[in-house]
Amino acid sequence: MSLELKAAELLTMHAAWKLDQGNMTDTDAAMAKLKSTEMLGMVSDEAIQILGGMGLMDELPLERIWRDHRVERIWDGTSEIQRHIISRALLRPLEA
Ligand SMILES: Cc1cc2nc3c(=O)[nH]c(=O)nc-3n(C[C@H](O)[C@H](O)[C@H](O)COP(=O)(O)OP(=O)(O)OC[C@H]3O[C@@H](n4cnc5c(N)ncnc54)[C@H](O)[C@@H]3O)c2cc1C
């Protein structure tokens, strides 16, 4: 979970750094969005599983985070569209 969080953070920081340099690509943004949103679902689900029933109680924010994460894979470009953007950039130079 820590590794997934770090990977998402680094991809996001990398895209932001390239944006600051003026050379961020669609692929940079797609990779950051795809990884971060899918990581959020995996990590929040895993955290609930570790805590069992307690993970679903109002006392903790986990169930809310898990529920809220779902829309992140849909709006601002679904995960499938992010994959299209990434694969297009890989395949276009090969004329595939
Ligand atoms: C709460 C909420 C708030 C929103 N707010 C805004 C907003 O403020 N402004 C705005 O402009 N939009 C907003 N949207 C719309 C959002 O951007 C769209 O829901 C999103 O782009 C997906 O489009 P769709 O819902 O029409 O799904 P569809 O395009 O019908 O997709 C349905 C499924 O098919 C898949 N799919 C579609 N095309 C392909 C393809 N070519 N290849 C593979 N798979 C494909 C998708 O990945 C998805 O899994 C909001 C949506 C929600 C849920």
Structural description of this entry:
The chain is mostly helical. It has a single domain (2-94), classed as Butyryl-CoA Dehydrogenase, subunit A, domain 3 (Up-down Bundle), CATH 1.20.140.10. The chain contains four helices and no strands. α2 (26-51) packs antiparallel against α3. Flavin-adenine dinucleotide (FAD) is lined by residues 71, 74-75, 78, 80-81, 84.
Tally of domains: 1
CATH topology, anyone? Butyryl-CoA Dehydrogenase, subunit A, domain 3
Bound molecules: flavin-adenine dinucleotide
- The second-level CATH architecture is Up-down Bundle
- Broad CATH class: Mainly Alpha
What is the N-to-C order of secondary-structure elements (H for helix, E for strand)?
HHHH
- Could you tell me the number of beta strands? 0
Radius of gyration: 16 Å
Report strand %.
under 5%
Mean pLDDT across residues: 97
CATH superfamily: Butyryl-CoA Dehydrogenase, subunit A, domain 3
Uncertain stretches: none
